[in-house]
Amino acid sequence: MRVAILADPIDNQNAGIHVYTREMVAAMIRTNPGHELILIREKIDSAIKGVTQIAVPNIRLPIGFASLRLFLIVPFILHQKKVNVVIEPAHFGPFNLIRRIKRITIIHDLTPIIFPELHRWHSQLLQKIFLKGILNKTDTIITNSENTSKDLCKVYPANCNKVKRIYPGISSLYEPDSNTAALNKYKITNPYFLFVGTIEPRKNLIVLLEAFQKFKEENNSTVQLVIAGGNGWKSETFFEALNKHPFREHILLTGFVLNEELPSLYTHAIAVIYPSLYEGFGLPVAEAMCCGTPVIASNNSSIPEAGGDGAIYFDSANVNELATQMLKIFTDPELRKNLSQKAKTHAAKFSWDKFANQFWKEIEHKD
Q1: How do residues 273-323 score in pLDDT, each as one tens digit?
Q2: 3-state secondary structure of 19
Q3: Any idea of the CA torsion for 164, 277, 260, 332, to the nearest 10 degrees?
Q4: Using CA atoms, how far apart are residues 28 and 303, in angstroms rounded to an integer?
Q5: Buried b / exposed e along 125-164 (16+ C-beta atoms within 10 A)
Q6: Which of 48, 34, 50 is closest to 1 using CA atoms?
Q7: Long-range contacts for 295-299 (Cβ within 8 Å, ≥24 apart)?
Q8: What is d(CA 131, CA 229) in angstroms, rounded to the nearest whole number?
Q9: Can you tell me the distance from the alpha carbon of 240 to that of 253, in angstroms, rounded to the nearest whole number?
């Protein structure tokens, strides 16, 4: 078979969807049972072997070219190449395919539908307009958690029979790393709690700031809060709260962090705090646990699936509960040790090769 992956997120994203697509492609190349694999993307990467790459540049001007590319140019190429299966990792498409081509759409979460207020207006609008039609036309829907599968069946019950859950893997990059170069680079000089992710409303960082204040008021220590990630959308409220924070000098923003620096940041943290309001999976939770780092996470959506018993949880709206968990994990080295052991065991279940083998079975499945 000829299997195409619409791999644009490798070129135009730098958050979770980029990591997912990049690792998925690499794992599917490694585990390929003998099919022809084609990547449709914005540019060619000569370092990727074992796959045909077709570059379709996404010219930002004139206005409307992105839609022309998505609805006409890419479908034409797929038809011309006689592709049998098309995979869309960015949960938006594929569009305008002839019926003989099997469509596989990956849905990471339904936040633009369930929590539209947390997204930019155009993201909400596009999902509302197109997602139902996409799911009606697709043959298989892959989700990365049981929670996302349940959400899909609740919001789009007519497509529930198409849903298959395949947990994502965690890159082998994530393992305990004693190197302190990243800490020196970002001027992290004291024990610290760590958050990893984009600064945007869904990550619930206002609650984190308030909990850190309570932690500092109850524990006269030099502990820092490190927020590692780029600035996203609707972040004005966060920065207003940050600038007024009574312990602002103990809060460090690194900006975007290179993947190879993250294992060290995870390893040396007291704990990773993940206060998100909703996640389709929660990659930073599992990444941290692969490094043996305890996690304090919101008890909602799919996060307990990612965290298992390697994390302790709190109500995402409860500042006091988060502050209490921070104090507990900071003052109890035995708890940190036990959580670290459980974290490594739980995170070991997330393998990209296991993911890819399951995915190939879905590709080959005859409806």
Answers
A1: 999 999 999 999 999 999 999 999 999 999 999 999 999 999 999 999 999
A2: helix
A3: -110
A4: 25
A5: eebeeebeebbebbebbbbbbebbbbbbeeebeebeebbe
A6: 34
A7: 295/271, 295/339, 295/343, 296/193, 296/271, 296/272, 296/322, 296/325, 296/326, 296/329, 297/273, 298/204, 298/274
A8: 28
A9: 14
- Backbone angles phi and psi of 344, in degrees to 5: -60, -40
CA dihedral over 60, 64, 67, 68, signed as positive or negative: negative
Helix axes 236-243, 205-218, angle to 10 degrees: 20
CA distances to 140, 192, 245, 265 from 187, in Å = 47, 12, 20, 12
For the chain, the average pLDDT equals: 92
**pTM across the whole model:** 0.90
Other C-beta atoms within 10 Å of 172: how many?
10
Cβ count near 287 (within 10 Å): 25
pLDDT in tens, 26-85: 999 999 999 999 999 999 998 999 999 999 988 776 666 777 888 888 999 999 999 999
Specify whether the CB–CB gap between 264 and 290 falls below 8 A.
Answer: no
Cβ atoms of 322 and 314 closer than 8 Å: yes
Q: Quickly list DSSP for 165-223.
A: E------TT-S-----HHHHHTT--S-EEEEES-BSGGG-HHHHHHHHHHHHHHS-S--
> Which residue in 135, 48, 100 sits closest to 367, CA to CA?
100
Q: Are 173 and 263 contacting, i.e. CB atoms less than 8 angstroms apart? A: yes
Which of 171, 167, 113 is closest to 290 using CA atoms? Answer: 171
What pairs with residue 226 in β-bridges? 194, 252
Contacts of 366 (CB under 8 A, 6+ apart): none
